[in-house]
Structure formats: structure tokens, C-alpha cells
Design a protein that fits this description.
The protein has 387 residues and is an alpha/beta fold. The chain contains 12 helices and 12 strands. α7 crosses α9.
Length: 387
């Protein structure tokens, strides 16, 4: 039986909420997912400017924080309604929605630290009447958990064929997942991507749809080798950025380097992120590098990243998730939809493809009677199938 649900996601590399309509089902004893459509609901300029503002005072202590939460809740609701409206689904067309339990909880971003224990799930269920699967964040001590392998789950569910692949998800963080048939998938600890680039960008206006504003500015600059060498020597020290004051952190990154224009800083930061990707790939066994390579996430269409990666991996074809029928900007929302479907299906996948987690995949915020009843039926059928 096939069911529809919505995946929703917003991260530090996105200026709003992405919504994806996902069809979940079981074919040949395996979970399958099909992407139907995606929508984007931009945040207000006021909210974007507040999120991007650096200051000595933690954002949660500002008077605007409750207003920011209310705006974010409203934008999640608008994204849900836009997907429902565009897909011409009636009130009972989708069984549920899925989003992260904590807003941008997986992002290593300075501007989202205030939201580490806050999420829009409860409000979304109340405003839309849909039951919401609030996906728990991954735990550092849960190696290869269902949460960490969200890209793996999504790609395996999206393709009817079993083949080796490597996924580079370029969003607020770099997520690298590799899989070889017959072997357990590998996922490496996340490293900053967009959350690093954002340190050298300034707020101002809504970005044009389909345009990566960071790449657009970065190509106007030049890579500064002295600064790049300094960052290489610092190693992974900057991974601790979320715990630092933005101004102090930037000072530690730049050191005594002469003042540089934003395009030069952003261009150099792009080169450094590619360096980080190379270091991550160096940790993988050779056989995990021989399959198809996919670029996904908000920066999957970043032209500068793609150019630099193509130069480094000459002859290696880098595919966008678009080749699977899933637009790169909608990928993270699609993964949330897939994980929500697995949570509702009582997590009864094929052994070896979907490693079981030691903790629940999601908490549920019941929606209206129709939605909650359909979700209970979904869970009961999944439990019966796994018995």
C-alpha cells in the first residue's frame, strides 16, 4: 500500500523551508520512495537578518527570539499548505508530515545555537491538522544510526536497483555517506560547509530562486594562499565554532592577516571546504570510492564547488540527485519524508540495508482525528509485517 507524506527541512544554508511530497510504499520486500514535488517557502527578510546578525549577546536572550519562533512555525505551516495546494491534495490527501525535532539541530551553525532544544513540530501539527513525526537528532555515540544514514536510506528507497554509491551532501554541514552492496554503509562525522561560509557573508535581501548567493559572490574573489595555509594549519579547530563568540571566532580564524574583501574570503573558504572533503574521502576504503558519486543538498548546485571538485577528481562524473528525479535543493526535505515514512512503518526494513537504531527514530505530535487514525493504521501494518 502506498502512502503520501510531507518532508520539511530548513537549515543554515537555506533562507526558508523546503517541503517535499513523498510517496512511500513497499516493493519486493523493500521500502520505496518516490518524489512527487517540492516547494520553497522563504523566510522573511526580518528573520533572515536576525538569524545572520552577530553579536555578543546569545540570540536566545534577545527580545526577538519568541517572535522568531512564531515566524518559523508559520513558515513551516505555509510550506506544508503550499505543497498540499500545488499537488491538489485534499485535507486527507497526506497521512503525515516529518521534520527535525529541533530546528536546524544538525547544523554546526552559530546562528542556530538558540534553537538547539526548540522545534516547530507541535505547532505544525496544531496548525495543519497533520500528524508530525519529529525526527530525533543523531547522537555522537550512535555510529551508523538510522539518523546518521538518512542520505543512505533516501537513496536506497529512491532507486529500485542496488548499486555502489557515494553521497556528498553539501548543506550547512558536509555529510559523506558511502555504500557498497553486501557491506554496511559508512557515514563520516559531519564537517561545516555552509555554516563556515556564512561567517564571511552578510545579510541582505532574499536570494533569487535557484541561485547560490555565496558562490555568486565567491567567484568574484580570489583564493588567498596565505589565509588558506593558515586554516590548513589550524586543522579542525574551527569545528568548535558554535561554542565561540562570532567576533572572537573570526579574529582567531583571520589572525594577523590583512583585511580582505568578502569575495576573497568566500572564495578561500570554498577552497578550504573542498580540502575538508578531500580529507574525508581519504578516510574511506578504496572500494567505497568506486561507485556513482552524487552531489546533494542546498550547495549541490554551487557552481564553484562543482568546478573545484571536477578539477580535483578529473574524469570522475559528479551527478546531481536530479538524475534520480529529486532536485538537489529538495533533497534534505525528501530525506525527512523518507525517515518519517520509516518511523511510521515501524522500521521493518531489509537487514543490512537499514541498520536498526538503539533509540526511537522519531516522536509523534498527533494531528487531527483523520490524520492520526491513518498513522496508527500505518504503524499497525508495519508492526504486523515485522512480526
Amino acid at each position: 500500500m502506498k502512502r503520501l507524506l510531507l518532508g520539511l527541512h530548513a537549515g543554515c544554508s537555506e533562507a526558508g523551508v523546503h517541503g517535499a511530497l513523498v510517496e512511500m510504499g513497499v516493493e519486493d520486500q523493500a521500502h520505496r520512495a518516490r518524489f512527487h514535488l517540492g516547494m520553497f517557502q522563504p523566510f522573511t527578510v526580518e528573520l533572515q537578518n536576525w538569524l545572520s546578525r552577530s553579536g555578543d549577546k546569545p540570540p536566545r536572550e534577545t527580545r526577538f527570539f519568541p517572535t522568531a519562533c512564531a515566524i518559523i512555525e508559520e513558515e513551516f505551516s505555509k510550506a506544508t499548505q503550499a505543497v498540499m495546494r500545488e499537488s491538489k491534495l485534499g485535507p486527507g490527501g497526506a497521512a503525515a508530515a516529518a521534520c527535525d525535532e529541533y530546528f536546524a539541530g544538525a547544523e554546526q551553525s552559530l546562528k542556530f545555537q538558540a534553537f538547539q532544544d526548540w522545534g516547530p513540530g507541535f505547532s505544525l501539527a496544531r496548525q495543519t491538522g497533520l500528524t508530525v513525526a519529529a525526527l530525533h537528532p543523531s547522537k555522537n555515540n550512535q555510529k551508523n544510526s538510522c539518523h546518521d544514514l538518512r542520505d543512505f536510506h533516501a537513496l536506497r528507497a529512491a532507486s529500485p536497483h542496488d548499486f555502489p554509491f557515494l553521497i556528498l551532501n553539501l548543506g550547512g554541514s558536509i555529510r559523506l555517506t558511502a555504500y557498497v552492496p553486501g557491506r554496511e554503509a559508512i557515514t563520516l562525522p559531519e564537517a561545516p560547509c555552509g555554516s563556515f561560509l556564512e561567517l564571511f557573508s552578510s545579510p541582505g535581501g532574499l536570494p533569487s530562486p535557484g541561485v547560490d548567493p555565496l558562490a555568486k559572490k565567491a567567484v568574484q574573489g580570489k583564493c588567498k594562499e596565505d589565509l588558506l595555509t593558515r586554516w590548513r594549519n589550524l586543522g579542525q579547530a574551527w569545528l568548535q565554532a558554535p561554542g565561540k563568540n562570532p567576533a572572537e571566532y573570526l579574529a582567531s580564524l583571520l589572525g594577523t592577516a590583512p583585511a580582505l574583501e568578502a569575495p576573497d574570503l568566500l572564495c578561500t573558504a570554498h577552497y578550504f571546504v573542498v580540502d575538508t572533503i578531500l580529507a574525508m574521502l581519504g578516510k574511506l576504503p578504496k572500494e567505497f570510492l568506486e561507485g556513482r558519486w552524487f552531489l546533494t543538498g542546498p550547495h549541490g548546485r554551487n557552481g564553484l564547488f562543482r568546478q573545484l571538485l571536477a578539477m580535483v577528481f578529473s574524469g570522475r562524473k559528479l551527478e546531481l540527485s536530479d538524475t534520480l528525479g529529486i532536485p538537489a535543493p529538495s533533497w534534505d526535505a525528501f530525506t525527512r519524508g523518507v525517515l518519517g515514512g520509516l518511523a511510521l512503518g515501524a522500521l521493518a526494513p531489509l537487514p543490512g540495508y537499514f541498520p536498526r537504531s538503539n533509540s526511537p527514530l522519531a516522536a509523534f505530535h498527533p494531528g487531527g482525528p483523520v490524520s492520526w487514525s491513518r498513522c496508527l493504521d500505518w504503524m499497525n501494518q508495519g508492526l504486523a509485517a515485522s512480526a
